[in-house]
Amino acid sequence: MTGGPKQRRPGLPGSYTCPTIAEGGCKMKRAAIYARVSVPRLQDAEEKVSIEAQVRDCEELCRAKGYQVVARYIDNAPYRVKGRLVDPSGTRSDRPQYLAMLEAARRGEFDVIVAWKEDRLCRGIYSAVPLGRVLEETKVAVELVKETFDPGMFFIKAAIGKIEVDNIRERMMMGKRGRLEKGRLWAPHKRYGYALDPEGRLCLDPERAPWVERMYTWYREGVAVREIRRRLIAQGAPPPDRPCGPKGRKDPWPLSTIHHILTCPDYWRGYAEVRAGGKVIQVPCPPIVSRETFEAVQALRKENRSHPAALIKHDFLCQGLVYCADGRKWAVRSIRWRRKGVLRKTPIGHYYCPGKGAAPEVYNDPDCPRTVGSKMLDDFVWGEVSRLLANPGLVRVALEAEIEELQAREAELKRDLERIGRELDRLATERQWVIAQARKGNISEADMVAQLQEVDLQLRALAKEREEKAALAAYRQRAEELAAFAEEYLSEVREGLAWLNQDLTKADAETKRRVFEAKREIVRTLVERVIVHRGRPPEVKFAIELPEMLSEEPLEVSGVSNGCPLIGQ
Asked: In this prediction, what percent of the chain has a pLDDT beyond 90?
């Protein structure tokens, strides 16, 4: 190393800073700071482990050692995993900022990871394996403020940390069960209309309990759930305790909450069921409504089902294929009554957006038309499909290309499955060898680390195998559907279109059913989805990629008009 003498920093005996690059010395290390708390409220409750304290101590360590802080990764807020909110616990390996830090380490964006303690990075083998891999693959180091990081003991300490977490969780669960068995609850488990007395027992909330009674009374009087919601908001009913706003729900009275209140048996039976540690415990609570009222409401709910299968008296050609521009899937319904309460002779069908009806002030997408008449949309989509079918040569070429692509993917997936099978066999053999050595008492620390890593690899391989098998089955089924369609419908297609587009005004019910089923099978095979817009024609996305799109000029097909309706105008 060239350059001047090492410069000692006052107050830190034995520490030094490398000479700067201008002096011809070594390059300053780049540091990334990682901080974590499992529950956001701990930031204020425990100053020693708050995010601010962790970051401050890590920055002091970086200044003392001459590191340049280039990034800060902080996990301190709940995040969603498969639609469920979870806390950034140290036992989880899918923490967003934790994964972002590991990816940045692989790209070489920093040289050292600085954390407050080792349990801030991981608590358990499952969350330690990704970090261990990064440390093995790169030259990134780890430094801790309150501890000394030993790579050789990393997995052992992670396993011990997991045992400690499990013990803490078991003690907490025992405390919860004991509290519940004494009839005591904590705030997150109390129902709307109840409060907790000083001893933690359920009692009536004088502010909210009357509103529960009113909901049951209104429903027995025939008031719809949406009208109940409107009355609750208009009359200033106190909403549930869950906060509103950007981090809470936007709607103070969601329809799902009202439905839950109207179906929860806790309001009449005198106890609430709470699950703790796999055991259901009955916690006493005073009833708010009578059993007679509750059962009467349940009977009314059964009679007032909005759209049971028996009430859909209309055939929908595009059912399951209609979406908003932002991806919400539309539902179908049959309408039997006119606006002024006059019964229609024949029910009419509608496609509608369920999100719009739930809370109009929340779902305010101006491009969503809310509802579309089924006849108008079905006629338009069938017109587009008919234009496509009127060019059988073009469709056949596109289908053959699609089938070849699907078969190529199937062959590729088969090769991947064979490779994964060989890898699983190798891992299983190696794992059995490690277990045998452990039984003999010859296992070392390195063997233990290898075993744990291999178990993780095996689980990942099995998950991949399962996903690829499902994908393989889907590709094969898709190829078979397209091949069957090409064989059945593309021969003499113009004659087939003449039969499908015949005038059914005077046709019998059996003919109408056969024509509709044939049309629906064709639409479901060729159309991937139909996207509706307000004030614009619908957008039909076909399941096959056409080499040359059809002409924009109107195509004369018997019984079909390809005019584009303007929806919502």
From this structure: 14
